[in-house]
Amino acid sequence: MTINLRALSTKASGLADDILQHHDDVRPGTRGMDFYELLEAISSLSIQSPTNSEVKLVMDLARAKCEVFRAQKALAECLLQESEVLSSLLRFRVDVAGKTLDDADMGLGCMRLAFKQHGWSHLSARQRESDHQRAENSSSATTEGPSGRALTIQLD
């Protein structure tokens, strides 16, 4: 059994152990005592002529629970603010990536236009590989010229 304000309050009031177990915090699915349980504890005081120490303990318990709820609220607000800032950062990064992609697309478009205007063509990977192998096997190289004619360069 854990010693907490509720346990002290129960012992001070002389309540039985079965009532103490009924109000224990280790029940599955609950996160400590909520306000309904606090109201139940306060209403149980009027049944049995409470002592001043018991009343003080229950009031301390109520104040502590209020502080816990305030801290939970502050934490939730901080987490919300963190999520909003992270969302803004991610939106900014998306905008930057979009602009970078637009710039790359513009650059590729300009390259395609220049190739088209000058009659150039880019070779596929297979064509480059076969040209490279031919160049290694012979002392001459064949390339396509600006007018679409094949140029052969003979090395001495």
Provide a descriptive summary of the structure in words.
- With 156 residues, the chain is mainly α.
- The chain folds into two domains: 5-116, no CATH class; 123-154, no CATH class.
- It is 69% helix and 6% strand.
- It has five helices and two strands.
- It has a two-stranded antiparallel sheet.
- Helix 1 (5-13) packs antiparallel against helix 4.
- The longest helix is centred in the middle third of the chain and has 67 residues, at 52-118.
- The chain is rod-shaped, with a radius of gyration of 40 Å.
- The model is unreliable at 15-20 and 22-30 (pLDDT under 50).
How many structural domains can be distinguished in the coordinates? 2
Along the chain, the helix and strand elements come as HHHHHEE
Beta-strand percentage range = 5-15%
What share of the residues lie within helices? 55-70%
Total strands: the figure is: 2
Mind telling me the C-alpha Rg?
40 Å
Shape: rod-shaped
Low-confidence segments, given as residue ranges, are 15-20, 22-30
Overall pLDDT score: 73
**Lateral strand order in the biggest sheet:** 1-2
Largest sheet: 2 strands, antiparallel
